[in-house]
Amino acid sequence: MFSMGIIGFLAGILFRKGLLRRSRGSLATFGAFAAVIIYGGIMNPASAIMYHSEGLNGKILLAYYVSGLPMDLVHAAATVVFLLIAAEPMLEKLDRIKSKYGLVE
Question: Is the pTM of this model over 0.90?
């Protein structure tokens, strides 16, 4: 949950700064990057720490990164497909909620 929260927080910051555009391609690219680099970068070492807490070294961490890469790539591909299909309807609903409840700046 922490890594997903960090991804959402980072997306919000990047959008506010103007570095993340509100388009399907931009969101899909960020989603793929976040799934592999941020989510995998947090969860793969977490797995290594949970199972090898006494003898943790660079080789073990590298093994977990390499063995987790296929899952990270599948996660990234699924994120891209989902965002390409559902980004616009989700953003429209969020805009409606923001205007309905007066959350617009």
Answer: no
